[in-house]
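User: Teach me something about this protein's shape.
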Amino acid sequence: MARSAALSPEEWEFWDRWMTAQRLLAGEVDRTLQRDFGISKAEFSVLVTLHRAPGNRLRVTELADSLGWDKSRVAHQLTRMERRGLLDRTESGAAGRRTGIGLTGDGRDVVQRAISGHAHTIRRLALDPLSPDQAAAIRAWSRQLIDRLDPTSPDPTPGDSGGSAGGTGASPATSPGRKRRDRDHRGSVTRHG
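Assistant: First, the predicted structure itself:
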């Protein structure tokens, strides 16, 4: 593989501003979810993924795959959310293992309110300031990056309710069982479902 030329000062400035904008936007989205709905980005990601699943239920392994999380992280997250009454586990595995997960009534209420509020936050912070041409350019550039980093990533579904999590781990483009990976500004892979 040929080595690329060094970045120019303008390219470094672009990169730094893009990374700063992502960090600030993700932080504001997280604070808004915590303040307005009492849930974390991780909880929002789990709730939205289950909300979009048939019957609001998935197998734990499907949830983990959809979010791109390892089993340990999923297990700890589900335990905390089950204690809060946002979801419940069902016995569906061998020897009575609880391999299914679903939203409770409280979980459904929280996610429905959070989706609406989250959409308002995304619109206010990121979408309203853009002209149609700017939005189209960013959409096309983002698709190119996604295709380069994860060619198996599905195209977004226009009009999908729930909206993107804006860095919180849920994306309308990813159905349960499909993985989409992004890289953070340090080059670490993060997965979103």
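Now, about its shape. Residues 30-153+162-178 form a domain with the Arc Repressor Mutant, subunit A fold (CATH 1.10.10.10). Residues 159-193 have pLDDT under 50 and may be disordered. If you'd like, I can walk through any region in more detail.
User: That's plenty for now, thanks!
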